[in-house]
Structure formats: C-alpha cells, structure tokens
Amino acid sequence: MDIVIKVIGMFFALIGVVYLLKPNIIKWLMEFFKQGRRLYIAGVLRFAFAIIFLIGARECDITWVIITFGVLFLISGLLIFTLGLDRLRSMLEWYQQQSNWVLRFLASVTLILGAVIIYSA
Fold first, then answer.
1. Is the pLDDT confidence value at 73 over 90?
2. Spans of all domains in the chain
3. What is the mean pLDDT of residues 9-15?
4. 3-state SS assignment for residue 121
5. Which of 5, 43, 90, 112 could bridge 80 with an S-S bond, Cβ 3.0-4.6 Å?
6. What is this structure's pTM?
7. DSSP 69-102
8. Rounded Cα distance, 64 and 32, in Å
9. Helix (H, G, I), strand (E, B), or coil: what is residue 1?
10. Per-residue confidence at 35, pLDDT binned at 50, 70, 90?
11. Angle CA(109)–CA(75)–CA(81) in degrees, nearest 5?
C-alpha cells in the first residue's frame, strides 16, 4: 500500500511541475470543474485518497504525516459536499482571477506536498 501512496505523491509532484511551467493549465482545469456537477468528482477523489492514506499509513515510514494527509483529504472531501456548488464555483472564479505568480506559488506548494508524501511513504 505504501507504493500506492508513493505513486500518488509522484502524481502530485508531477502536477506541481506542470503547473509551475504552465500556470494557465490550472485556470483551464478550474473552468473544466466549474461546469455541471464535476466538482463532486474532486470530492469523491479526495475521499478515495483519504481511504488509501488512512489504511496504508501503517506501512509507511513516517506514519503521522500520512495520517495527517489522510485526515486533510477527508475534511476537504467533506467540504466539497457541504459547501455547495455555487460557493465552490465562486471560490474557483476567485482563484482564476489571480496572477500567474500566485498560481505558481500554489503549484510549488503542490510540488512540495508531493515530495513530502513520497518521502514519508
């Protein structure tokens, strides 16, 4: 299971690198998820990550870090379903209006989180 968590960490790191190089991809992706009920896909994906991280944490080198990420994924998945689509869309619109420097900062955070997950798994 720790290999699955490492793969997820590599996925986050790869996404961070891509977003650093092309921050407009973030805006395109946000526009994609704003349509219809696609935001719920993100919620289900976060629940899946939470389950994987919480179940697989025992096999990882730094268990508490993986458990923390699992809990954060669980909370963020719950928030997606409790905040509602209208509020989430307005939040995405706010992020889309930010400069490329802000988006690159968020991409670097994503890259660092991916590296932490890989290291901890």
1. yes
2. 2-120
3. 95
4. coil
5. 43
6. 0.86
7. HHHHHHHHHHHHHHH-HHHHHHHHHHHHTS-HHH
8. 34
9. coil
10. confident
11. 110
Unique residue bearing structure tokens 């798994």: 121
Confidence class for position 84, pLDDT limits 50, 70, 90:
confident
CB 104 within 8 A of CB 16: no
Amino acid occupying residue 6: K
Residue 89 tokens read as: 């869309």
Q: Using the structure block, give the residue that is written with the tokens 């944490």.
A: 57
Token code pair at residue 17: 């690198």
Cβ atoms of residues 12 and 110 within 8 Å: yes
Query: Mean pLDDT, to the nearest integer, of 49-77?
Result: 93
What are the DSSP calls for 8-70, one per residue?
HHHHHHHHHHHHHH-THHHHHHHHHHHSTTTHHHHHHHHHHHHHHHHHHGGGSSSHHHHHHHH
